[in-house]
Amino acid sequence: MPRQQINLEPYRDEIVTLFQHGLSSDSIGRLLESRYNIQVKERTIQSRLRKWGIRKRHRTTTADETLHARIRMLFMQDRLTDKAMLKLLRQDGYDISERTLRRLRFQLGLHARTSMDQPPGPVLVVAK
Questions:
Q1: What dotted CATH number matches 60-124?
Q2: Residue 117 to residues 39, 105, 120: CA-CA distances in angstroms?
């Protein structure tokens, strides 16, 4: 006999909000049990979040052409370091980590010079 499926649609907005505020699936399950007296396993919550298209990490930064153009400008024209770029990008409203910025910069072919015999500042390396 198949398992009875729990209808989480009435709790969807609350589940999504809690998840996006950093609560684990297990914590959400315990909270639903204490508030509404329904027992939901961690895996059920995770599968529903996937079904609803909810992810903790936003993957839009890798495809955001406006962000890419801003990184190019900050790197080439303003010659900013990663930390300075990160500060400005966050002020612009981008939720981006230092690691993601560094990865995007390398994907865009923007590499900082490290040799002492070269003039200071960033350089654009174009792959052939």
A1: 1.10.10
A2: 66, 23, 9
